[in-house]
Design brief:
It comes from Streptosporangium roseum (strain ATCC 12428 / DSM 43021 / JCM 3005 / KCTC 9067 / NCIMB 10171 / NRRL 2505 / NI 9100). One of its GO terms (molecular function) is acyltransferase activity, transferring groups other than amino-acyl groups. InterPro entries: Thiolase, Thiolase-like, Thiolase_C_2. Residues 236-378 form the Thiolase C-terminal domain. Strands 3-2-4-7-1-8-11-10-9 form a 9-stranded mixed beta sheet, with helices on both faces. Strands 5-6 form a two-stranded antiparallel ribbon. It is built from 14 helices and 11 strands. It has one domain: 3-Layer(aba) Sandwich (Peroxisomal Thiolase, Chain A, domain 1). With 381 residues, the protein is of the alpha/beta class. Helix 10 crosses helix 11 (283-292). It is globular, with a radius of gyration of 19 Å. Helix content is 35%, strand content 18%. Strand 2, helix 2 and strand 3 (69-71) form a beta-alpha-beta unit. The longest helix is centred in the N-terminal third of the chain and has 16 residues, at 21-36.
């Protein structure tokens, strides 16, 4: 358990915005600071990525900040959960006092999903994967899904349940991209256009603009601010691979180690979690992560999510905003996992609120099941 808390959380504009990446970043940062009741001048720490190789420099310059601590590690969608750990450590070490973690992307408006650079010659990806023309990252997650289904006898219907629950949550969230859409059924998911077997269009996340920000400071200071502080209880991370050729078992992810570290630091176990925000780049990502984090055993996630268990009114609420599958997915989704977790613990989610939520988990996944980071948050007691 740490002595640091999240005191502000907000989204930028979402969906199809027509805005620049820096504009979306600025929206998110200023809204999160307003949520915390803090001025921009209080920010002396900044963690961000997604703008360029010099993301922290560009965002700081755009906002007129002169931070004494920055972090811009690029690890895909889980970078922001990693930033929480770094921010906690920096604040506790006295390197800075107020950290903003931010992200913004205009992928939908720019009509681009590209986050990766050129594949360097002589790497495993270039030699053993790229010649076969896989769709990045779709084909890689499809391969993990194929292996998972084969190893444990799981049917495609189990994956579809993840997408159905996400849509049900999105229908309760006015900010969700799929808000107002028709409910999704298992049959809808299975009959959607196949992209890379066994994954259909409905098994994959959205492509949208969007972003968000969270503000962290010491727990002592947080207790004097506008909002009830959301305490950082624990964190952990694990990086496993870049190419699929480096993975011994596609059914075991780095969530095993990142989750174990987070629970140990927090002094908690999976059964203590009231609501979970789990990166859902694809439906298979959620099943593998639930197992890796210890919510169920190997090959059991299909049964774990069956019957609407992770949807509204279910016993274990997952991705209560609608997730990357139905709420928003601006290239890297990990920051928005934190925003929703904070709102659930504050009791601010209206029709999608989980009653009595006191412990929330946010787990990000980056690359092709390459990097993993887990954060446990709790109400201040």
């Amino acid at each position: 358990m740490t002595g640091v808390a999240i005191v502000g959380a907000a989204e930028s504009d979402l969906g199809i915005t027509g805005e620049s990446v820096l504009t979306l970043q600025a929206q998110a940062v200023t809204r999160a600071l307003a949520d915390a009741g803090l001025p921009l001048s209080d920010v002396d720490g900044l963690a961000t990525c997604g703008v360029s190789r010099f993301s922290a420099t560009q965002v700081a310059d755009y906002l007129g900040l002169r931070p004494v601590w920055t972090e811009s590690t690029f690890a895909g969608g889980c970078a922001f959960e990693m930033y929480v750990a770094r921010a906690v450590q920096a604040i506790e070490a006295g390197q800075c006092r107020t950290v903003v973690i931010s992200y913004g992307s205009n992928q939908r408006s720019a009509r681009s999903r590209s986050l990766a650079g050129v594949v360097e010659e002589h790497t495993p990806e270039a030699r053993f994967e790229a010649p076969y023309g896989p769709l990045y990252p779709f084909s890689y997650y499809a391969m993990a899904a194929q292996r998972y289904m084969h190893a444990f006898g799981v049917k495609r219907e189990a994956l579809a349940e993840v997408a159905v629950a996400a849509r049900d949550w999105a229908l309760l969230n006015p900010k969700a991209y799929r808000y107002g859409a028709a409910p999704l059924t298992v049959r809808d998911v299975l009959s959607a256009p196949m992209v890379s077997s066994p994954l259909t269009v409905a098994d994959a996340c959205l492509v949208t603009d969007g972003g968000g920000a969270v503000v962290l400071t010491s727990l002592e200071r947080a207790r004097d601010l506008r909002r009830a502080p959301v305490r950082v209880l624990g964190y952990g991370e694990c990086v496993t691979n870049t190419s699929m050729t480096a993975v011994d078992d596609l059914t075991v992810t780095g969530a095993v180690r990142s989750g174990a570290a987070a629970f140990t630091r927090a002094g908690l176990v999976p059964g203590d979690v009231d609501v979970a925000q789990i990166y859902d780049s694809f439906t298979i990502t959620v099943l593998l992560t639930l197992e890796g984090l210890g919510f169920c055993g190997a090959g059991e996630a299909g049964d774990f999510v069956a019957g609407g268990r992770t949807g509204p009114g279910g016993a274990f609420p997952v991705n209560t905003s609608g997730g990357g599958l139905s709420y928003n997915h601006p290239g890297q989704y990990g920051l928005l996992l934190l925003v929703e977790a904070v709102r659930q613990l504050r009791g601010e989610c209206g029709d999608r609120q989980v009653p009595g939520a006191e412990v929330a988990l946010a787990h990000g996944t980056g690359g092709i099941l390459s990097a993993h980071a887990t954060v446990l948050l709790g109400v201040d007691r």
